[in-house]
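// run 5 | inverse folding | seed 20
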């Protein structure tokens, strides 16, 4: 089953209480792909500048990630800078330089148009709608966004939510999108916009899944050291969509397991900066942690 991801590719400068990295590879697309490629081949649509170092892309290619949809433009790659607070649940964006990302127009190569599992990472909802219009017959569309689009492009965002099967967002975004302080009421209001399922992430407090009036709640994997949460959301999505692409059917049992795989992949990302923990991660390590998850949530 082929997966398509459309989103950012970046150089990140990140400060946490554990240290700092400058111009480290990042972006939703690459974090997603590094997780999803454990399960199925991944097709990437994105843009980089001529300054982007190819070694991470070569590593991902060996893992079954296809970059035919990647355009290389003259100019600098998108750059994002962030600083995490002492408790790591909160971060401030220090800068966003769109660079070549400013003119990004997703164009799907012909062979990508029949992709079945789609992850629309956090980009302008108008571009997300454009991607959907280029697809033949997707089986599952999974959507991500951020507060910037909730306040700035609400109408287009509502349209893309209505065309998505699963919407992944965090609790703050759910409140902002609906104006509801009560999370259950916010969930009800978002489901009324059209998606079949919702995943509400609550940072180190885990993730909640809602599908056909059924709920599932998974904690975040308990870790003693969290060095850098950047990319946790996108690797969660990679594990989640990756698992569903391999499982096939959309049902509660598969969705519950997908949440556990997503949480597991995210737990590795945060153990080190950038892709440091994800490079070299093995399927055996993932399965061991999934087993441990099973053990700590059984009652
Ligand atoms: P996450 O920690 O999962 O929310 O994702 C972090 C990644 O999102 C970083 O690697 C950033 O490069 C990327 N990012 C930050 N701001 C934006 C933005 N405005 N648009 C697209 N990607 C972004």
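// decoded
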């Amino acid at each position: 089953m082929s997966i398509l991801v459309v989103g950012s590719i970046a150089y990140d400068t990140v400060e946490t209480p554990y240290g700092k990295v400058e111009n480290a590879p990042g972006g939703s697309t690459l974090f997603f792909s590094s997780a999803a490629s454990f399960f199925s081949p991944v097709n990437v649509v994105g843009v980089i500048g001529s300054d982007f170092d190819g070694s991470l892309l070569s590593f991902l290619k060996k893992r079954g990630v296809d970059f035919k949809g990647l355009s290389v433009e003259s100019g600098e790659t998108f750059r994002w800078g962030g600083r995490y607070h002492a408790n790591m649940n909160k971060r401030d964006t220090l800068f966003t330089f769109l660079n070549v990302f400013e003119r990004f127009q997703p164009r799907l190569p012909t062979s990508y148009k029949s992709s079945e599992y789609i992850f629309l990472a956090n980009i302008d909802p108008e571009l997300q709608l454009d991607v959907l219009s280029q697809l033949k017959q997707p089986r599952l569309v999974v959507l991500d966004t951020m507060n910037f689009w909730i306040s700035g492009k609400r109408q287009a965002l509502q349209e893309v939510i209505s065309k998505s099967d699963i919407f992944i967002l965090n609790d703050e975004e759910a409140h902002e999108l609906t104006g509801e302080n009560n999370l259950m009421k916010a969930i009800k209001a978002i489901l009324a916009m059209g998606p079949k399922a919702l995943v509400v992430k609550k940072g180190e407090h885990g993730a909640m899944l809602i599908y056909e009036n059924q709920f599932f709640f998974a904690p975040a994997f308990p870790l003693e050291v969290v060095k850098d949460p950047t990319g946790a959301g996108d690797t969660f999505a990679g594990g989640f969509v990756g698992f569903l692409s391999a499982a096939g059917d959309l049902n509660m049992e598969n969705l519950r397991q997908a949440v556990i795989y997503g949480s597991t992949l995210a737990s590795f990302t945060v153990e080190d900066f950038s892709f440091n923990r994800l490079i070299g991660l093995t399927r055996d390590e993932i399965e061991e942690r999934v087993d441990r998850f099973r053990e700590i949530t059984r009652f």
